[in-house]
């Protein structure tokens, strides 16, 4: 079960979340300490640009390195942090960390990688969220076009107008915006017309059953999402790609980027950096051939 949520993470807090308020309070207090003690870490999962066959992006995914329990999945503590408001501090940490990392990779010549950071609706609703993002970009020196913010579709509110105003201000900074877990959250697609976004990420539940035959509801939905997004001038990313046949299907239908265990699991920054250096070396060889 635990494996479902990423590499080597455990889900020991599921019971706590569903349990009584005593456990919740305990977890909340532990999470506060985790931030202060530096137990939170950011892992990076690469994204492949399908046409260029190159790693061009990475998603930042938070992990809790718990002294007793090992690596804890965000699925075990992000929902609680969203309820308690701790997500503001956690999210700010991940944003800073991810931007600093992407800038370091750019400056050291490892790669010019676009980094994607997950943002909860609670964070976005802070009065100064846009200023926070601007300040992080200024402080780290990361060019805005190398930052992408992912917002989960199911968290988009009915108040599309006020959301659109925040999105416009973020885009004015030069940041890219993505709708995460696309296809699972909303009963109406009308919001896409009003929200200035750049990318949709097809939810992995649709990708899971793709077997290369092109048959079945998920294949039809995947094709439809790609076509619709492209007609709207948006890029499409598929998440949860685990098999070569899925990659082929997505390539055939023009999906722009893919992400999933087939390309790489979420890993520590240093491990991804090694891979990126390898890619850069290969590229250099190919050019001198
Ligand atoms: P997400 O943003 O949709 O991230 C993708 C999740 O799918 C990640 O789980 C990733 O490890 C997993 N995944 C990637 N490729 C595959 C694959 O091929 N197969 C399968 N079965 N799974 C794959 P993870 O890291 O456990 O994160 C879960 C969720 O927690 C994320 O879903 C995101 O909504 C949330 N999250 C993670 N980090 C943050 C953060 O810093 N801030 C906020 N607000 N949410 C976060
Ligand atoms: Mg995401
Ligand atoms: Mg997702
Ligand atoms: Mg997801």
TrEMBL record:
Q: Indicate the segments forming the EAL domain, all copies.
A: 24-280
Source organism, top-level taxon: Bacteria
Q: What is this protein called?
A: cyclic-guanylate-specific phosphodiesterase
